[in-house]
Amino acid sequence: MKKVIVILIPAFIAVIACTSESSNSAQHTPQKMSTGNPYYSRQDTSKLQVANDEWKKILPPDLYGVARNKETERAFTGKFWDQDLKGTYYCAVCGNELFKSNSKFASSCGWPSFFESVRPNATIYVPDNTHGMRRTEVICGRCDSHLGHIFDDGPPPTGMRYCMNSISMDFEPDDSPASKK
Ligand SMILES: [Zn+2]
What confidence tens digit (pLDDT) does each residue in 143-152 have? Predict the structure, then answer.
């Protein structure tokens, strides 16, 4: 099993490298989090079953801590909490499309907040009774990584507040060449 993974990873990286080079006019992909991550894809929505041991080898430690160890970044410290740009937010671990900027709203909580995800199965909800609180955890619908929590004190039309960790997400502005399909 180990051998197969060792062989597959370079193959995947080669495929990713080829793909981005062959379509260089449309793919200028600036700060890609996908470097060295063979599971990262913004097109493939198939479910991932990857063990934490494997993620630990692939992800930067701070992303691993939040996404796989369910840590929370400190309020008002993330890169997206007060961002107001038009574009799309993706899972930083696997590339799954999560939120459009038109569902983001200014929240005073210090974390990026959205009133709905981009499609019903983009995110999954799990009861979380840790830290003496009854909350609902939000995880990625593709890779099960921890994204944040959801509360029912959001604005219309849904009344929901997806309270997310910035580090768990990648952002692609609408005017970036990579966003033009
Ligand atoms: Zn994911």
Answer: 999 999 999 9
